[in-house]
Write a structure and sequence with these properties.
Pfam families: ACT, CM_2, PDT. With 381 residues, the chain is of the alpha/beta class. Among the domains are: 91 residues, Periplasmic binding protein-like II (D-Maltodextrin-Binding Protein, domain 2, 3-Layer(aba) Sandwich); 75 residues, D-Maltodextrin-Binding Protein, domain 2 (3-Layer(aba) Sandwich); 81 residues, ACT domain (Alpha-Beta Plaits). The chain contains 13 helices and 16 strands. Strand 3 and strand 4 form a beta hairpin.
């Protein structure tokens, strides 16, 4: 039976009275609840089996990013509709997040205080079952993960309008932490103010990236008004909440959280403004089947050095997804390269290509291999 005929047959079997539909919905809800309870009990059994496994170290995270990616990919393939694939995958991520929290809640460090885009990204990556720990800056997130006071961290990595977040790249270069995942979040910027504020502020405050993403709009609507960068969008919202002469830029939920009024919505210069956030961890992620690998490379400053660096990847047929240079901290006019490639470091072709790269590098570090994101994330309004 074709898809249209099958849907017609199902619809024909549905009750037509409102009372009958509600009875059927109540029955399905009970079935869903029973199945969720069964799944949670199986999650308890997973925890019990892992705790008895001699290879499982005490305190080691039960979270398996590669397993989650495989489950969500399969759910998308099995989805019969009418809900779209991203919605169904999001629902199942929340189910897995709740079941994992029932085993042992994950703790995640991210940029705070509450009300930042980083908070939205952390929830998008781990679901609402994770316990967030807010840090005042990106280096503090790195330190919290490295010290073991949290399981994972979430930090901004790259914006489609303003480019890479230099502080994150520099922190990665100086850290032994690994990239375990990523989240791409559409960034919708709101201009917000105290309810009693006038029409013109004394100063407009926000995170430096947010101010840069709204530069043209601010030039057109508030020329000559001072702009001040602060540690986070939420910190900006707090300032606006305490001073009617201060306007802030940030996500809509920061306005709600701090009792502000949105004066202008979606003021970012690029309507497709998107930020990629990195998930930081201490343990490597296993192969999922659809992965990417982040590398940190350094080469001597001589003609053809970068070409020699990329040649083994090209000959192995490995896609280079992104390449960016940063000044080396310890050598003037020397550079390190951050390169993303398709595949996992344990894939034979990738492993062989990396071995061919080593003789041409002053430094070669695998910053992490992790699953390609399965869900297209909603906007961060």
């Amino acid at each position: 039976m074709g898809g249209t005929d099958a849907n017609a047959a199902v619809n024909a079997a549905l009750p037509e009275s409102l009372d009958e539909v509600r009875v059927l919905i109540d029955s399905i809800d009970r079935q869903i609840l029973d199945l969720l309870s069964q799944r949670a009990r199986l999650a308890e059994q997973v925890a019990f089996i892992k705790e008895r496994d001699p290879a499982h170290e005490p305190g080691q995270s039960f979270y398996r990013p590669e397993r989650e990616a495989q489950v969500l990919s399969r759910i998308r393939e099995l989805n019969p509709g009418p809900l779209d694939d991203d919605t169904v995958a999001w629902l199942f991520r929340e189910i897995m997040s709740a079941c994992l929290a029932h085993e042992r809640p994950l703790s995640i460090a991210t940029l705070g205080p509450s009300g930042t885009f980083s908070e939205l990204a952390a929830v998008a990556a781990f679901g609402h079952g994770g316990r967030l720990q807010f840090e005042p800056g990106i280096p503090e997130v790195f330190r919290a993960v490295a010290a073991g006071s949290v399981d994972y961290g979430v930090v901004p990595l790259e914006n489609s309008t303003e480019g890479s977040v230099s502080l994150t790249l520099d922190s990665l270069a100086g850290s032994d932490l690994l990239l375990c995942g990523e989240v791409a979040l559409r960034i919708d910027q709101q201009l917000m103010a105290h309810p009693d504020a006038g029409s013109t502020p004394r100063v407009i405050v926000s995170h430096a990236q947010s101010l840069a993403q709204c530069r043209e709009w601010l030039d057109a609507h508030f020329p000559g008004i001072e702009r001040m960068a602060v540690a986070s969008n939420s910190a900006a919202a707090q300032q606006a909440a305490s001073d009617p002469e201060v306007f802030a830029i940030g996500p809509a939920f920061a306005a709600e959280r701090h009792g502000l009024v949105v004066r202008a919505a979606n003021i970012q210069d690029n309507v497709q403004n998107t930020t990629r956030f990195a998930v930081l961890g201490r343990e490597p992620v296993a192969v999922s089947g659809n992965d990417k690998t982040a590398l940190l490379l350094s080469v001597t400053n001589e003609p053809g050095a970068l070409t020699r660096l990329l040649l083994p990847l090209s000959e192995a047929g490995i896609d280079v997804l992104r390449i960016e240079s940063r000044p080396a901290r310890d050598r003037v006019w020397d550079y390190v390269f951050f390169i993303d490639i398709a595949g996992h470091r344990d894939d034979p072709a990738v492993a062989a290509a990396l071995e061919q790269l080593r003789p041409h590098c002053g430094q070669l570090r695998v910053l992490g291999s992790y699953p390609v994101p399965v869900i297209s994330q909603p906007g961060g309004e």
